[in-house]
UniProtKB/TrEMBL annotation:
Organism listed in the record: Nothobranchius kuhntae (Beira killifish)
Region of interest (Disordered), ranges: 201-248
InterPro entries reported for this sequence: ARM-like, ARM-type_fold, TPR_IPO7/11-like
Gene3D superfamilies with a match to the protein in the record: Leucine-rich Repeat Variant (1.25.10.10)
Biased composition (Acidic residues): 204-217, 236-248
Regions that span the bilayer: none
Domain Importin-7/11-like TPR repeats: 4-184
Coiled-coil blocks: none
Gene Ontology CC: one annotated term: nuclear envelope
Entry protein name: Importin 8
Pfam families: TPR_IPO11
Polar residues compositional bias, start-end: 218-228
GO biological process, one term: protein import into nucleus
Amino acid sequence: MMPLLHNYITVDTDMLLANSKHLEVIYNMCKKVLSVDAGEDAECHAAKLLEVIILQCRGRGIDQCIPLFVEAVLERLIRGVKTSELRTMCLQVVIAALYYNPALLIQTLDNMHFPHNPQPITAHFINQWINDTEFFLGLHDRKMCIIGLSLLMELPSRPAALERVAGHIIPSILLLFLGLKHLYESRLLNKPDLLARAGLQDQDQNEEIPSDEDEVNESQSLLQQQPNMAAGQGANEEEDDDDYWDEDCIEGTPLEEYSTPLDYDNGEDEYQFFTAALLRIQNSDAAWYQCLTAPLSNEQKKQLQEIYSVSQQRRSTAAKGH
């Protein structure tokens, strides 16, 4: 049923939105799956369907659906989730809502309360997201997470929970980009034209490709660095990144076959999205920019500069294509 529903949402979006009952039926089905003991695989598919709707209908006036979708996945998240797959999928629905309309999501979270959960839901969401960043695997999930974190750090009114994790935001984004770099290389290695569009043609094509499991292990190790670490006291800058990887090619997650507008060739560019957000913060709020970047080690600063370079290269390549 999932392929049929995905096809209906993405191919005939106008028909989906022509009658509010259509969305209501799909929501009720997903809500039921997330509310009963349907198994985490079925629950992952239900959450994915909600994410697809949000991303497909961005700018199409489904504001009334956002609180319902967000409540459904957060309620499931708070009940306790065994697998990282379902946990990140539930988080992704909320991240998609952040991308849909940041102000609407924050308002929704502020007005949301769950019994037996004393922690403010905004803080619960942000803390869970930062803790689980390394479990966002594959191309779409990492891209969604990077875009979401970029929006999060640029919120005009920052929740207190966001201030408390400021030193972890950019390190988390850097690890996501590290995974994306290897993923792009593994997928585009034999396609020079696509490799150029990805901004990676100057990378060493003999570099070993990491597995998602190894990336999680590295992420857990690097994220344990103290946020107040002085520059240069992080990981050994002479250490070769290849030590962390094996020769297995990275595969996408099973749910990535259900594409969204973010996954199209003309979709959001995560490199340009992140660097533009960080530059705006640097120019408009120097104190917050310092909070975000001060904990970075020299190696992390080097990686950040490489991301800026790839972003500029992608921008130039896109401009030449027009």
